[in-house]
Amino acid sequence: MRMGLAVMVWVFAGVIAGVSAGCAEDASRSGTTVAAGPPYRITTTTGMITDIVQQVVGQRGQVTGLMPQGTDPHLYKASRGDLIALNDAHIIFYNGLLLEGKMAHILEKLGQEKPVHAVSDLLERQYLLDAEGKHHDPHIWMDVKGWMSAVRSVAKAMSDFDPEGAEIYAANAQRYLAELEKLDVYAAQSLASIPAQQRVLVTAHDAFSYLGRAYDIEVRGIQGISTESEAGVRDINELVVFLVERRIGAVFVESSVKDKNVRALLEGAASRGHDVIIGGTLFSDAMGKPGTYEGTYIGMIDHNVTTITRSLGGQAPAKGMQGKLTGPESDEQ
After folding, report:
1. Distance from CA of residue 254 to its chain's centroid?
2. 253 forms bridges with which residues in the sheet?
3. 65-69, 113-117, 135-139, 325-329 — which is least confidently predicted?
4. Which of 93, 130, 136, 317 is deepest in the core (most CB within 10 A)?
């Protein structure tokens, strides 16, 4: 593991040296002072961050997201092209809280050269959930109000970086925050319609705790906070017993996590005389296909809330909050 990290840092250093040699004229790459005008080059990690940054910067930024659809950020390793995009950026945004674990050293090194911001920085420590007693749970986007803080963090960082655009960033952020307020209300009302005894969300890994706390849903994940932690036979057996004893009828797979452990739950419950179905596919660490409604943060959460609500016996429109859902889980059930 240490040897792999050393190689990555060595490669990163070589890429930095090679790219910087051809781009020395752009003084903005070695600090917060902006030499060139907009649109600024902005590099982001996850799709959720890419979306909110684009919402805030508008035409004043060219946003490059590193992680494509279906990518698991816990396991993601930066490619040479990623390293070039990071070095070429004027400013960088990432989630933080160890979500991008394998990129942490790269981002830390870049932070000595240019503005590098974790969108989780504005959150109060008491807001954050503990993860397995080791660090904080990074899945803050699952609580819409928590992600609203991330939007404010982006607007503040961009205003500090580019004071001339501060009014634009503030206006864009306020417009988008108003949309997120509506999303939060929809999530709260829809999930509250699930009968009390069915308000249990079982998924492939523990990515939904912020959603559970925000909207009063009991959450269980087969794997831990990070998909690097493998679920053992004991973990699966304990969850099978939980499903049978609580008479839970549906569990959920995730778009960025293999479903083999969820399938094992179904088989284990069936062997004990209890039938469990897959209630749908949820977006956990990645959004939907680019260019679709589910490929936006709002569409991602709308899809999750609508799928969970309808599969667990609650009331929600088949096509979601805005009637825009397009995936199979939005079909009539």
Report:
1. 12
2. 281
3. 325-329
4. 93
The shares of helix, strand and coil residues in the chain, as percent rounded to the nearest 5, are 50, 15, 35
With cut-offs at 50, 70 and 90, classify the pLDDT of residue 230.
low
Q: How far apart are CA 90 and CA 61, in angstroms?
A: 10
Helix residue ranges per DSSP H, the chain: 2-21, 47-57, 80-88, 104-110, 144-161, 166-192, 209-215, 233-246, 260-271, 297-311
> Residue 286 is which amino acid?
A
Q: Kindly state the average pLDDT of the residues 171-184.
A: 98
At residue 25, does pLDDT exceed 60? no
Among 152-166, 179-193, 213-227, the minimum mean pLDDT is found in 213-227
Q: Which two tokens stand for residue 110?
A: 């870049």
155, two tokens: 């607007």
Report the amino acid identity of residue 118. Answer: A
| One-letter-per-residue 3-state SS of 215-244 | HCCEEEEEECCCCCCCCCHHHHHHHHHHHH
Question: What is the C-alpha to C-alpha distance for residues 34 and 97, in angstroms, rounded to an integer?
Answer: 28
Q: Which residue pairs from 156-160 have beta carbons closer than 8 angstroms and sit at least 24 positions apart in sequence?
A: 156/122, 157/91, 157/93, 157/115, 157/117, 158/56, 158/57, 158/60, 158/61, 158/91, 160/32, 160/115
* Residue matched to tokens 């087969």: 222
Mean per-residue pLDDT, 254-271 = 88
Q: Which two tokens stand for residue 272?
A: 């004990």
